[in-house]
Structures are given as C-alpha cells and as structure tokens.
Specification:
alpha+beta; about 30% strand
Length: about 90
C-alpha cells in the first residue's frame, strides 16, 4: 500500500493534469511488472468514459511528473497508469 502522503500527492497531480472534477477516485497498488520489477499500479476512476479528453502531451506530462516525484523520494518504481470508469472499476474489485 502506498503511503498517505504519496496517495495525496499523486491525486493532486492527476487532478491538475486531468481536470480533477471528472476524477472520482484513485487507487495505488504496489506490485510487480511482467519481468518481476517493482512498479506502482495507479488506477484512475473516471465519472464516465469521455471524462478525460487529455492529449498525449498531458498524459506524458502526468507520467513524467509522477516519475520525477517518485525519484525525488528515492523511489525508482515505474508508475503504470490505468484509466477506468466507476462501472469498470466495480467489476474489477
């Protein structure tokens, strides 16, 4: 489980980059990628499928900001983002 500060900071970055009023929730899970390296699996729960009309540039900026934030904390894990609707999230749980 990610720390409370990390959750809060990542939520703030997502809200700033992706029109936060359309983001319902955020779940951060510490896990491993397909090669066994540690990653942060970040699921962003959106109000609806069209909630984010972000450009590739905005998504890349979010990924960079998150990576830079993690590195500033001495954390070398890769942030892996998923974007789902609340309905999709409920079926995954």
């Amino acid at each position: 489980m990610a720390s409370d500060n990390m959750d809060k900071d990542v939520k703030r970055m997502v809200a700033e980059e992706l029109s936060g009023e359309k983001v319902l929730d955020l779940k951060i899970e510490e896990t491993l990628d397909h090669t066994g390296d540690p990653i942060l699996d970040i699921t962003v729960v959106l109000k609806h499928r069209d909630a984010v009309n972000a450009s590739g540039k905005s998504l890349l900026k979010l990924l960079r900001r998150t990576s830079d934030y993690l590195l500033s904390r001495g954390d070398t894990r890769f942030p892996h983002y998923h974007f789902v609707t609340s309905d999709e999230f409920a079926t995954q749980a």
